[in-house]
Amino acid sequence: MPDKSLYRIALTQIKGVGVMHARNLMEVVGDEEAIFREEARTLEFIPRITRRLIQEIRNPEVLRLAEKELEFVTKNNLRLLFYTDDDYPQRLTPCVDAPILLYARGKVDFNREKVIAIVGTRNETRYGQDFCRTFVRDLAAQLPGIQIVSGLAYGIDVHAHRAALQNGLSTVGVLGHGLDRIYPSMHRQTAIDMLQQGALLTEFPSGTNPDRHNFVKRNRIVAGMSDAVIVVESGEKGGSLTTADIANSYFREVFALPGRIHDKMSSGCNRLISDNKALLLQEVDDLLKHMGWMEEKKKGIPKQRDLFVELSESEEKVYQVLLHSGAMQVNALAIALNMPVTELFMTLLELEMKNVVASLPGGMFKTV
User: What is the pLDDT of residues 100-109, one digit of tens each?
Assistant: First the structure.
């Protein structure tokens, strides 16, 4: 198969072509290179692709920039993860605004069985530091294969990464800039250490500055590539609350560490809990119970379904996956079935009403 890296990068360099346009182009044209080789009149038939966008696609500067970026990727042994690749973080796939291309440094598997995000304020307190260190230690003791995702920022983020490293866990730092730098620079050694058992990940090409709006975009990757998001400390406003909101929109579980009502760095977490936007988290067992991870399901002989229950084609597909895989989290199930989460929820509801599947804590489902 010919290497499509140049055209995959170029697809992200087209002015005015965002994630949705890019996916639309790929769906209609079907090939990265063909997008840049097709005649203009062919592209005109694609929905929402204007003549102006076609001119931008034909702009020779696009491929020139892509060639320059590909040189950087090759020179620095980076990985390109296209949204159709098997090694692309599959939990991101159902997210409509997920990046079509990611740059990675490090050879870690982004599709481990269990992945969580730990985020929080940059102005952490001793309370948050101690909880983060203890929580990750206890988590590693029970789930040594779990992967921890965060943003390598000041405060809780970097404490989560360092706690993961200290306890032998894989950890991924999602950046709000290109891989030609580390921001903040004082976290460079931590970033280097992470490459031994984790990775650095970004959607931004080299030369991209760590601007504020990039970190907002970064947060959707942190939320989307995780099974659950844990907010350790947060004020009334902050990026970690944005990450929590995005996680909720992606149907991920959100947990928050409660604090005293007058502590500024606990006000955001307390609000998440009181508004039912996050589950209260005090210890590792809280996470394991709600996520259905307390103990692995023991597989036995599959129970035969009542022969008189009639299932639609989509219901049958969902049932068969659950029957042979055991309990599954809804996002993992959506990936396995290549089905939008919203559509899957409706199908699961129908199956529950027919007493064929049952819901468990943490967005888990199993056959009855």
Answer: 999 999 989 9
Structure tokens at 279: 């589950």
Structure-block tokens of residue 234: 């947060």
Rounded to whole angstroms, the Cα distance separating 245 from 254 reads 9
Distance CA 98, CA 185 (A): 27
> What's the CA gap between 331 and 339, in Å, rounded?
10
- Shared-domain flag, residues 56 and 139: no
Identify the CA nearest to 311 among candidates 352, 281, 274: 352
Same domain, 37 and 119: no
Q: Residue 179 carries which side chain, given as an amino acid letter? A: L
Indicate if 146 and 238 belong to the same structural domain. yes
Total count of domains within the chain: 3
Residue 354 pLDDT: 83
Taking residues 286-314, report their average pLDDT: 68
The sheet with strand 357-360 has its strands ordered as 328-329, 364-367, 357-360
Q: What is the pTM (predicted TM-score) of this model?
A: 0.82
Angle formed by the axes of helices 156-166 and 126-142, to 10°?
Answer: 30
pLDDT, one tens digit per residue, over 28-43 is 888 899 888 877 777 7
CATH number at residue 215: 3.40.50.450
Phi and psi torsions of 77, nearest 5°: 55, 45
The pLDDT score that the predictor gives to residue 308 is 55
DSSP 3-state of 41:
helix
327 and 182, same domain (yes or no) = no
Crossing angle between the packed helical segments 126-142 and 284-291, to the nearest 10 degrees: 50
Q: Are residues 330 and 287 in the same domain?
A: no
Range of the domain at 346: 313-367
Beta carbons of 329 and 313 less than 8 angstroms apart: no
Residues 264 and 318 in one domain: no
